[in-house]
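Changelog note: in this version the structure field was regenerated for every chain. One regenerated record is shown below for reference.
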Amino acid sequence: METFFEVLETVIDVTVYIVMGFFGLFFIIFILAIIFGKRVIKKWEFEANFYNDKRQEIGEFDIEMKKFAKEEGDFALKAVFNLKHADLNQGNVVQIYLEDVLVMEGVVEKEGRIYLQNEHLKSDINDPQEGQVCRVMCSSVELFSEKLIID
């Protein structure tokens, strides 16, 4: 009977050390993230979400102006457009307008889906405002029109 309690005590000790080790490792990673992590300063951040007839989100347009706190330099623009839609045929030209200004343009490479980033920017987005209309055009036909909201 003594060996059973000795084995049980050993199992409990090992379990306690594993749990303490996990939380200790988590604490060390947390401290290192605080010391060496990069803090992001955002000047502004907006998005426009696009929905199908069933009110399911099928795409979004995100824009933000940010910089890292510890680095010198200006704010950098980050723009991302992602959309899944049946009318997106391979080779179609998709254009994103913000209040009648062409912001992004790209070609559909995969049937039914398009993903655009900063390299597809056609003009600078200096100071967008909440409520500005974001229009998505595909081969000169307007697919969606939504207002920008604060993200």
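Spot check on this record: Residues 1-37 form one domain. The mean pLDDT is 87.
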